[in-house]
Amino acid sequence: MTLAAGPFDPSEPLPANLSACPACVAAPSAECMAQMAAPKSARLMLSVPLAHCALCISTLEQAMAAVPGVTSARLNLTLRRLSVEAAPSVTADTLIAAAARAGYEAHELDPGLLSSTETDRQGRDLLMRLGVAFFSMMNIMLLSVAVWSGAQDATRDLFHWISAVIALPTVVFSGQPFFKSAWRSLRAGRLGMDVPISLALILASSISLFETWMSGHHAYFDAAVMLTFFLLLGRYLDHRTRAVARSAAEELAALEVPRATVLRDGVESIVGITEVQVGDLVRVRPGGRMPVDGVVTEGTSELDRSLLTGESLPVYAGVGTVVSAGEVNLTGPLTLRTTAAGKDSSLHRMADLVAVAESARTKYTSLAERAAALYSPLVHILSFAAFGFWMWKTGGDLRYAVNISAAVLIITCPCALGLAVPAVVTSASGRLFRKGLLIKQGTALERLAEVDTVVFDKTGTLTMGAPEPTNMADHPRHAAEVAFALASASSHPLATALAEAARSAGLRPERVEDIREVPGYGIEGIWKGNRVRLGRAEWCGGQGLDVTATYLCTGSGTPRAFTFADRLRPGAEAAVSALKAQGKTIKLISGDAPGAVRHLADRLGITDWTAGALPAEKAQTVAQLTAAGRKVLMVGDGLNDTAALASAHVSISPASALDAARVASDIVLLGKDMSPIADAARIAGQSTKRIRENFAISAWYNVVAVPLALVGLATPLAAALAMSLSSITVSLNALRLK
Fold first, then answer.
1. Per residue in 84-97, pLDDT tens?
2. pLDDT of 514-565, one tens digit each?
3. H helices of 582-675, where?
4. 457 an active-site residue?
5. Which EC number applies (predicted)?
6. Residue 195 has pLDDT above 50, yes or no
7. Which helix (H) or strand (E) holds 701?
8. What is the Cα gyration radius of the chain?
9. Is 261 helix (H, G, I), strand (E, B) or coil?
């Protein structure tokens, strides 16, 4: 039982050349033919757990490009995965060796392992080191109060030594993320962002230890630990903005059926999906998911294609129907002749579309990451220049020159720069969370502020994805009660909705006997000696309407149409209206029938809409808008939206969405109300303004503070205090969002 938008002939096979592959729709046929004719390249995936900044992206991608046979390389910084397209002769060991020469540890990716395990371990490790640094900083500050209050000679030395006992192990332990990263950079012959940070920590600790040994008046253990704490805080905040995301391609792969029931010589056998060959006959029972792409050779049923195409209603499947892996067989057993299986299936190729889109989008980096490429050389030049100048100026006073050099390194440490984005994201995320939105990506707010076009999916996004009868009261009571009796015997979405509405209206089912379900057509039975049917219009002897409907025939007269409409999601009208008021272009694109899409578009005032869109067509639409210079926000919930969500400038999905869609999106709508989407766009603009203000604060801080350190007016302790003050200022400015 399903909606029939027009006449059909179950015995007429669909065209043999109809592709079930969404990926093929997105590319011109000539390109597909060229790809089939060309030698296949291998895609190798490497895990690079220690990659963390924009410099890592360029370094690793250049290192891979230098390997003979490699055609392209993309580092997904969010997932720390390196995707490499290369000739079949290139092995994972070759790429791992190239990554090692660049200073990075790499491992061949095992798709069977959960990517979140390593991410969670790194987060716990950073949090533990941050906690140790905070505890030590508080204790050393208490000891420093006594020194600042006038402790002299042996008392002062005692407090300095106690501070050393606390500070040195803390710096060694908590500073390991920076030391290890700096060492890898130096071994690879480059100056990473963590090199000056590590030098500052080592110099501050070394000078403090030397001053304590020489009974000096000043030691800077508090500066070293304070510096470690704020650097770790920035690193942890940055980690948290990345750690939530997981690969949507993995979620799509999870839908692949690992085994299939194959018919060979009339005998059924269950085999692994890798053993299924093109041409094999595969049996799929009701309730099962299609394990392969194929053509139906026997049986009739209905298919749930909502995850792949967005169609809200099941569709008829009979002999000659082309089916895709991932679709669900609803009502009757089917036998398929396999046309593609495993890595060649449409579902797997859709996962490839998502993976490519994810990798492409990671080329977008925040302002802080782009600034990092210029930071390290400048800091080293300033520090060494200060050391050389004061060695010459003081006639070789090493102690004084090293103090100034260390102060320059400390005062220019990128705490404020590193906190500029994460602090705002954390503050904005808290505000949006209270409105029902969860920010998953650190740069999502920056990208959302740039959006000028919003593309909505229909079913499950602007609507609730649940049909509701619209004309129950228009039918005679006896007809509604006959329909109630038939509908109660089926689990079809329309039948379920019809039975629930009849029950709520206080109707009682008529006595209908010999009820049976005819897969692909509907339900029939005997009522008062007459055969009655509830299902497709043609099966009931009538003509289908251009709306979602099921039809009742009682043996006489024209079949009665029970029409349905999808319930509008709360706040959908307010969200569309508010986004229009912000000057954004609104587009509706759906895999559903034209009548249903047009009705919803008219109701919401959306003039630009598309119906019957395949998954690759949605992704292609987003790509075309992007190529035209538009910044696209994609809002969707289904598997058919996943590639579009991953390739859009920024994306949002409801919490009720498929896992793959939620994973591919940057922001998750936690409640049913859609109105917070417009709030997110407004808050994103405010967040971008705060981020720019934070960069301005960081810039002015360096303009004022660095000259003071260069001329010797700032000790390492004063430098650490100034650095901390800039970090606190940036954090307080971010809190203004609340």
1. 888 878 877 788 88
2. 988 887 788 999 998 889 999 888 888 888 777 778 899 987 778 999 988 7
3. 594-604, 615-627, 642-647, 659-664
4. yes
5. 3.6.3.3
6. yes
7. helix 676-710
8. 32
9. strand
Provide the 8-state DSSP code for 729.
H
With a cut of 50, say whether residue 328 has pLDDT above it. Answer: yes
Angle at 697 between CA 695 and CA 703, to 5 degrees: 105
Asked if residue 369 has pLDDT above 90, the reply is: no
Average pLDDT over residues 116-121: 52
Q: Measured between alpha carbons, how far is 240 from 233 in angstroms, rounded to an integer? A: 11
Which token pair is 45? 């995936």
Spacing of C-alpha 225 from chain mean position: 36
How far apart, in whole angstroms, are the C-alpha atoms of residue 602 and residue 605?
5
Q: How far apart are the first and last CA of the chain?
A: 52
d(CA 512, CA 520): 21
At 191, the amino acid letter reads L
Helix (H, G, I), strand (E, B) or coil at 703: helix
CA 144/CA 55 separation, integer angstroms: 38
Tokens of 172: 């060694």
Q: In what order do the strands lie in the sheet with 609-610?
A: 437-439, 667-669, 650-654, 632-635, 453-456, 585-589, 609-610
Length of the chain: 738
623 vs 381, residue with greater confidence: 623
Residue spans in the chain of domains classed CATH 3.30.70.100: 44-114
Architecture of domain 429-462+572-593+601-686: 3-Layer(aba) Sandwich (3.40)
pLDDT at 236 over 70: yes
Give the residue-averaged pLDDT of 12-34: 38
568 backbone dihedrals φ, ψ, rounded to 5°: -70, 135
Q: Which one-letter amino acid corresponds to residue 61?
A: E
Can you tell me the distance from the alpha carbon of 423 to that of 122, in angstroms, rounded to the nearest whole number? 20
Provide CATH code, domain 44-114.
3.30.70.100
What's residue 586's pLDDT?
Answer: 94
Which residue among 457, 566, 592, 641 is the active-site one? 457
Answering whether pTM is above 0.85, one says no
Task: Please choose, from the candidates 226, 187, 200, 234, the residue with its C-alpha nearest in 3D space to the C-alpha of residue 53.
Answer: 234
- Whole-number pLDDT of residue 314: 75
State the pLDDT at residue 660.
63
